[in-house]
Amino acid sequence: MNVLVTGGAGYIGSHTCVELIEAGYQPIVIDNLCNSSAKSLQRVQQITGGQIPFYQGDVRDEALLNRIFDENTIGCAIHFAGLKAVGESVEKPLEYYENNLCATMTLCRVMAKRGVKKLIFSSSATVYSGDNEMPLRETSKTGNCTNPYGWTKYMGEQILRDIAKADPAWSVVNLRYFNPVGAHESGLIGEHPNGIPNNLMPYISQTAIGKRDHLNVFGNDYPTPDGTGVRDYIHVVDLAKGHVAAIEYLMQHTGEGVFNLGTGHGYSVLDMVHAFESVNGVKVPYVIAPRRAGDLPTCYADPGKSREVLGWTAGRDQNDMCRDTWNWQSKNPNGYDD
Ligand code: NAD
Ligand code: UFG
Fold first, then answer.
1. Residue 149 annotated to the active site
2. Ligand 1, closest atom to CA 12?
3. pLDDT, tens digit (0-9, with 9 covering 90-100), for 61-76
4. Would you give the end-to-end CA distance of the chain in angstroms?
């Protein structure tokens, strides 16, 4: 079956293309490369021996989507394409709402017209309200997002929920990712953020390789075991496999399903720093800095529903995440520019 993968050249999309091919699916990618390189897809082909039809362009370009549907028989779609930098979304809200929501609506309009009504959406743990008890279940309270990026995910889910309610032929899966980290074990694909990384793992690995002087640990006075923020880090290959499990669910159900993709384990910032140092035999200098605005003390999933309904669990542990991140970083210090 052909799977349309929007944003397939990106970090999670490229890893998902590997798992799709290995599970016998044929990914067909559309990406405007606004935050990625087409080299990621060449590397996916190198890893898998498969071929990936690639359309360079914007998901909001309805004519291009029509062409893709004319040229290929699409069975379902996975919608990764979107802008994802939290801080930037506060500065450029219109760009985020425009890109993330219009892309989702254009894609759904074309899919509906073509009678392809099966869609997996990249949502985020950020849709959960900050006042929930841990662990977060799919039934936990959502909303009260602290930034426009988070609202685009919240609204994106709602748009899909309403579409599935209005037309019972639709099958939609909203996947709420926790904190994706790591890279494919080959070291051929991974995450390479533009400029100074916002997220913890790329910052750790760029510090270890000497691109950054030190890591700023944002706050050590949170109500957590060592005072630093706790998150549910999930290996990107496990996350990618979660999409393959979701396709199988999508083919057998209609309506809307929502699933957490996390491990259920929370690690603090200092846990991650110390694990990275000991697994890889490197130093990660750090200083304690003030808290970052908008951060929660703790955030981790209850992955029970994904385990029971999708039959999916995350098999890779913290050591795998640290080892694979470093393998990618040290083999590709400048990402796909090397
Ligand atoms: P990424 O930036 O590496 O990948 C997104 C891809 O979409 C990029 O290749 C980009 O060029 C492309 N893109 C963006 N807007 C587009 C458009 N209008 N048309 C065509 N292509 C477009 O990010 P990622 O980490 O792989 O994230 C994938 C998805 O998962 C995003 O929707 C993101 O919001 C979501 N998500 C990511 C995280 C995370 O921490 N990485 C957490 C939760 C949810
Ligand atoms: N942190 C540091 N120093 C840094 C970067 C991060 O101490 O340089 C800390 C943060 O304060 C937090 C933890 O590391 O305690 C994780 O921070 P990240 O920025 O890596 O991740 P977040 O949990 O803040 O957010 C991520 C994505 C969001 C997504 C959310 C939930 O960036 O897009 O996970 O899935 F919504």
1. yes
2. 26
3. 999 999 999 999 999 9
4. 34
